[in-house]
């Protein structure tokens, strides 16, 4: 494939992805004006958003795509456990929690070769 | 009184300009540093897919939402059709719709021009959404949108910078470090969620979503994410309603999901 064709395909893919992504944001914004902030539908939407995000995060940890596929599932779960424990132990410090979790994954992956 | 959690601040800044600046300042710190690390990983991914730096920046500027951006890079590299890419991104980023729906209803003051909301919507992603839901309800109505805008635009600018830096660093980061960079994203989002589990409905939604996500993904990779949100979210909503009927009326907080 030529350089120009590859770039053209990538630009098209990015634009399509961007249009779809903004479409969801705009639709949510449009619907927000027509629904009360405390309506049952809004409550339901909040539950769906939280459940979807939690499901995505669980999927990224348990069934990752990309370089994390090379790591052991126990190493990733240990990273999450250490990250959450450090986060709460150190007065909800996000950076230290995330750093400790990532360091745990690195150490476990390095130790098991 | 609300419980003191991750991001606390005063109950108002006085003017819209002050709220905008306060939002920008709130973003400089843990959220910006960790998101920068996530986008360093994305920049490296863009480089490894043999894309140019402008393509990586275009993706972050226009398609701002990391999971969807990663889907586009990987599917384009695999030669997937545009229709398939559109479908995959729609399913991956579906969550943005209920997210903006919940948030925008709370940010809108009577004199807010509608286009402000549509412009702000572009830079609402998970980090700004969680912080906005936590901080905005305590601010005067007029200051909510400026605060969230200041926060989101700084986050957006940081991710653009980090995409470029990650692209440049690609060949200098050892594989073990790049693994840790990729791992920062789910870990950070997870801590943000766990930190904000004050409402019963959120606890139900997070537990149900966590349990349903992986098996539904295995069952149907294309629809797994949407099914997880709709099924687990609806279950959480139903359980919360039932618990609210049983508990004392003062216990429920229906306006704050």
Automatic annotation (TrEMBL), chain A:
The keyword Transmembrane helix applies. Coiled coil: none annotated. It comes from the Bacteria. It holds the Pfam family AzlD. Keywords: Membrane, Transmembrane, Transmembrane helix. The chain crosses the membrane at residues 6-24, 44-65, 71-89, 94-112. This is Branched-subunit amino acid transport protein. It comes from Roseospira goensis.
């Amino acid at each position: 494939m030529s350089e120009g064709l590859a770039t053209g395909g990538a630009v098209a893919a990015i634009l399509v992805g961007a249009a779809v992504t903004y479409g969801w944001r705009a639709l949510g914004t449009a619907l927000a004006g027509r629904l009360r902030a405390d309506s049952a539908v809004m409550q339901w939407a909040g539950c769906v958003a939280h459940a979807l995000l939690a499901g995505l995060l669980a999927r990224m940890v348990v069934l990752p795509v990309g370089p994390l596929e090379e790591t052991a599932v126990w190493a990733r779960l240990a990273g999450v456990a250490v990250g959450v424990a450090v986060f709460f132990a150190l007065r909800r410090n996000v950076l230290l929690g995330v750093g400790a979790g990532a360091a745990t994954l690195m150490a476990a992956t390095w130790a098991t070769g | 009184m609300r419980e003191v959690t991750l991001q606390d601040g005063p109950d108002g800044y006085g003017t819209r300009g002050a709220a905008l600046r306060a939002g920008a300042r709130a973003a400089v710190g843990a959220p910006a540093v960790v998101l920068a690390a996530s986008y360093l990983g994305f920049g490296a991914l863009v480089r490894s897919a043999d894309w140019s730096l402008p393509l990586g920046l275009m993706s972050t500027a226009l398609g701002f939402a990391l999971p969807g951006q990663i889907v586009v890079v990987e599917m384009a590299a695999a030669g997937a059709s545009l229709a398939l890419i559109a479908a995959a991104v729609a399913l991956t980023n579906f969550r943005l719709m209920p997210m903006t729906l919940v948030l925008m209803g709370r940010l809108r003051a009577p004199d807010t021009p509608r286009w402000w909301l549509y412009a702000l919507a572009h830079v609402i992603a998970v980090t700004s959404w969680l912080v906005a839901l936590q901080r905005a309800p305590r601010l005067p109505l007029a200051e909510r949108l400026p605060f969230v805008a200041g926060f989101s635009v700084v986050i957006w600018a940081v991710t653009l910078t980090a995409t470029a830096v990650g692209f440049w660093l690609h060949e200098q980061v050892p594989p073990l470090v790049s693994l840790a960079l990729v791992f920062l994203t789910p870990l950070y989002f997870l801590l943000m969620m766990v930190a904000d589990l004050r409402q019963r409905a959120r606890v139900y939604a997070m537990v149900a979503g966590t349990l349903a996500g992986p098996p539904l993904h295995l069952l149907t990779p294309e629809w797994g994410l949407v099914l997880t949100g709709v099924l687990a979210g609806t279950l959480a909503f139903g359980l919360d309603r039932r618990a609210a009927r049983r508990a004392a009326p003062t216990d429920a907080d229906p306006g704050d999901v």
